[in-house]
Amino acid sequence: MRNKSVITEAEEIGLATELVKLGARLQLLETETQLSRERLLKLYKEIRGESPPKGMLPFSADWFVTWQPNIHASLFIDILDYLTENTKLKGIRAIIKAYKLYLENARVSDLEPILSVTRAWTLVRFIDGGLLRTTACTRCGGDFVVHAHDLYDHYVCGLCRPPSRAGKGGRPEAARVATEALAIVG
Ligand SMILES: [Zn+2]
Questions:
Q1: Is 112 found in the same domain as 170?
Q2: pLDDT of 107 above 90
Q3: Full domain range(s) for residue 28
Q4: Position 19 in a domain
Q5: pTM of the entire structure?
Q6: pLDDT tens across 7-31, in order?
Q7: Cα–ligand 1 centroid distance for 130 (angstroms)
Q8: What b/e readout covers 74-89, taking b as 16+ CB neighbours within 10 angstroms?
Q9: Ligand 1 centroid to 142 CA: how many Å?
Q10: 55 part of a folded domain
């Protein structure tokens, strides 16, 4: 934190605090703030009352294209795209806002928010890194997360074609997510 203004430092601490409260892992905090690892560890312990989990993030791009995670991931990206196109929010600030809207959406829809903030952040990095992208469903027209290098001539999303293992509750639940997503994204 040498040569940094007090205001900048306060802003970084505020940002890190908000991220820790949302459940962010240490790697996210280290990437998105200029605070030292030592300070972040201290902050994390103070807020959550325990040390952050050790080790690298285990997330792979495949998780985001499996059925239920894909619906949550696509919902989050839809919200994020809307925010970046219609507000001045950028980068991690846009991700935080989009994630809060995603959580709110899950709460009112009585859904378990299976996309953690760290996963949401990782998803954005995978898209920026060219590993994943979005493509439009040929039936509902919604945008969904897919592998960047696969070809989808007639892509049909997980809402329009849920797998049989999703069971009876799968489709109405998924449809509700979609409805709520549209309500937010407008
Ligand atoms: Zn669809």
A1: yes
A2: yes
A3: 6-48
A4: yes
A5: 0.84
A6: 999 999 999 999 999 999 999 999 9
A7: 23
A8: bbbbbbbebbbeeeee
A9: 6
A10: no
